[in-house]
Amino acid sequence: MYFGLDFRNGTEILRDKHGKYATHVFTETAEQIIRNHDTSKPLFLYLAHLAAHAGNLFKPEEAPPEVISKFKYIKNFYRRIHAATVSVMDDGVGSVFRALHEKDMLKNSIFMFVSDNGAEVNPKEGGYGSNYPLRGNKFTQWEGGIHVPAVIWSPLLNLKKPRVAKQLMHVSDWLPTLYRAAGGDPHDLGPIGGFDMCDTLLEDLPWHELAYSHFKLNSFNI
């Protein structure tokens, strides 16, 4: 096990962030990028929070004490911390949304919140999340490990009312789908694994996609 300073902006080591909560740092950086953006040019902003991942086994998750105190009604102390990490991330998402609004960019933006996998629920692995009512957890092939939510908001969708899409979609489908939504032709991307899901999601069309997963040691193939 190694310890050291490994927090970077590109290749530059950031030495002035010690003691600051990572979720706050990422959120503030995203807000700064938005404030400084030239709106005559397009912007692709990918914000990948560490929350609510476990850091290490002897101290899996951390959160600001004042946020943890808001969840005193949760009996399990570690689940209380987990709730606090999610809460800070949720506030951060709201801050980024507000920054886009203040920059007058929301009217021409596609705003997404996506999870990459189900929660780790095994305390021995530093996990105190929940995938209920789905079976399984992170690193499993059950729906609790691979069936995750996603939220898309945009005035550009021209939906008459909000709706829930239940079609099967794989993470590799986001590239051609968003490329198409931004005005591009997915065929220009060449031979890729994903499918353009724009029409399927917007018009609620039926979709059948085969997902094959092979587990061997610590590798996954889909």
From TrEMBL:
SUPFAM superfamilies: Alkaline phosphatase-like. It comes from the Eukaryota. One of its GO terms (molecular function) is sulfuric ester hydrolase activity. Residues 19-183 form the Sulfatase N-terminal domain. Its cofactor is Ca(2+). Keywords: Calcium, Glycoprotein, Metal-binding. The keyword Cell membrane does not apply. The keyword Electron transport does not apply. Belongs to the sulfatase family. This is Arylsulfatase B. The lineage of its organism: Eukaryota, Metazoa, Ecdysozoa, Arthropoda, Chelicerata. The gene is Arsb_42.
